[in-house]
Design goal:
Structural class: alpha+beta
Oligomer: single chain
Largest sheet: 6 strands, antiparallel
Number of helices: 18
Number of strands: 20
Length: about 525
């Protein structure tokens, strides 16, 4: 980790050969190593497309930044991009705007759906590789430096190794998956010739698997674009369904994240905006603002707006459309279905959000991410790193290697958000067998439970709530919205446990006649 002399580039053997041939035929022998500058730009475009979430709008290529990296003139850097364009490998999607944004580029149709190979380039082959390695070093930010150290504790577990072996027809040992198996295939199949060094036998990988392959190859990176932004690392680029393939510090990956985080933080922002513009502080707060916050705190905001908008489809798609139409959009008058439903339900919230977009519509989204980063990185991660905890951040989530630290993280997040007058709700994601922890055992059965003596809540059909000796609860759940939230989270839970309003509930499901019941034990 401390003596790194190579960088891994995403490319393909065919692209490498084509660029090598074109460079060697168009430039002098002295300029032959220019090919690695071309390959760096290819690598940038592949990485940008692979790790981009949402609608792809091309990769920004800043001439000045590239020139500083390559150590040549602006005109030479421009020529590299011009050549790649004329060779019909890339094309310009969007022109640069002076003093604002660099031009954006993407692959031409011929190269838009290529499978990817991984090439290792030594610092001796191109001077700028040393600069890239130096860029990866984090020296002036203690918290970021520790998070960068912790990222090296990520590894692929046997299930992940098996996934890669099976998908790409690599070696197996008597049908038993071994972490050494893929390493053996790697060492035996490395090829070095005029077309460079290609890792893992030159296997062509789907773009979707590249973040997983990077973790296997220990090709790690931790970055923070500015001191107030989010931290980006290998986990932030990994598909959610691939997390089961990852171990952290030799243990299953476990994390806790904040339900409806961006919406919840926006509730704090709009209340602050109201207090500034009202002249009377938070007194007389709009009813719809209070309702908005309550939905966010319950984790039911998206479900509520889906119902009100009549939306039919994928929840994740709805969230993306909500952000594009409300949070990340310019202030516009024309109709959009999700925005219209939002305005109807929360007219004052919408107006307050628009006030926060007056100077630049992008300011609001940036402010939400910075509020999140302030809590998750500069408060929670900072304290836990100082306490010697092994953690990583994943935007609105904290990744730990044990359940006690996970609970500690939730307490720290709750304390930080309490100062903003908001109450977080948590979702846990864990591969740890819950029966390792006595308070989360799922061994409670109907016949073993005594409703008159045991402390528990019984929910029947999501409507009636009982506690202890069958008395109806009035304080545990203040209204139907809260019980609907808890019910939805129980249904979604994969491990029989849910954390709600600072309490951990375990549950089991059973049938009593024709009624399905859920038993909650606090």
């Amino acid at each position: 980790m401390n003596n790194i002399t190579t960088k891994n580039f995403f490319t393909t053997k065919n692209l490498f050969q084509e660029i090598t041939e074109r460079v060697s035929s168009n430039f002098s022998k002295k300029s032959f190593l220019q090919r690695y500058k071309y390959l760096y730009i290819i690598n940038r475009l592949i990485a940008d497309k692979t790790f981009h979430k949402g609608k792809y709008v091309g990769c920004k290529l800043n001439i000045k930044n590239l020139t500083d990296l390559f150590g040549n003139k602006n005109s030479q850097t421009s020529t590299i991009i011009k050549n790649l364009t004329e060779w019909e490998i890339i094309y310009k999607i969007k022109e640069a705007t002076v003093g604002n944004e660099s031009a954006r580029y993407a692959f031409t149709e011929k190269y838009s759906n290529i499978c990817i190979q991984i090439m290792r380039i030594d610092v001796s082959e191109a001077n700028f590789i040393g600069k890239l390695i130096d860029y990866d070093k984090i020296e002036n930010d203690r918290i970021l430096a520790q998070l960068n150290t912790n990222i090296y504790k990520l590894s692929i577990n046997n299930e992940g190794i098996s996934y890669l072996l099976n998908k790409y027809n690599l070696n197996t040992i008597d049908g038993v998956v071994s972490c050494k198996t893929l390493s053996t295939a790697h060492k035996k199949c490395i090829s070095k010739d005029n077309s460079g060094v290609f890792l893992l036998g030159g296997v062509e990988f789907d773009m979707v698997d590249l973040p997983l392959i990077q973790i296997y190859l220990k090709d790690f990176n931790t970055s923070r674009p500015d001191p107030k932004s989010r931290v980006y690392n290998n986990l932030t680029n990994l598909k959610r369904e691939f997390r089961k393939y990852i171990s952290f510090n030799g243990k299953p990956l476990i994390m806790t994240d904040i339900s409806n985080c961006q919406v919840l933080l926006s509730a704090a922002a709009v209340k602050k905006q109201y207090s500034i513009t009202s002249g009377i502080g938070k007194a007389g707060m709009y009813v719809d603002v209070k309702h908005y916050q309550k939905l966010a705190e319950s984790g039911m905001f998206y479900e509520h707006l889906i119902e009100k908008s009549g939306y039919i489809g994928d929840r994740n798609k709805f969230k993306k459309d909500f952000f594009s139409q409300v949070f990340f959009s310019k202030v516009v008058e024309y109709s959009m279905p999700i925005k219209d439903a939002f305005v109807k339900e929360f007219p004052n919230v919408y107006n307050l959000i628009n006030q926060l977009k007056l100077k630049d519509y992008r300011d609001f989204a940036i402010a939400m991410q910075r509020m999140e980063a302030s809590i998750m990185i500069d408060t929670v991660a900072k304290k836990m790193v100082k306490q010697g905890k092994c953690i990583l951040t994943l935007h609105d989530a904290i990744v730990c290697d044990n359940l006690d630290d996970l609970k500690h993280a939730e307490n720290l997040i709750s304390e930080a958000m309490k100062k903003l007058d908001i109450l977080p709700n948590f979702k846990r994601e864990t591969q740890i067998e819950e029966n390792e922890n006595a308070e989360r055992q799922l061994t409670i059965h109907h016949e073993e439970y005594n409703v008159e003596t045991d402390t528990a809540t019984l929910v029947v059909c999501g409507k009636t709530y009982y506690f202890g000796n069958n008395s109806i609860i009035t304080s545990a759940f203040s209204d139907p919205l809260e019980i609907r939230c808890l019910m939805s989270r129980l249904i979604a839970s994969k491990n029989g446990m849910v954390n709600y309003r600072g309490k951990t509930f375990n549950f089991c499901r059973y049938e009593d006649g024709e009624e399905e019941m859920i038993l909650l034990v606090a």
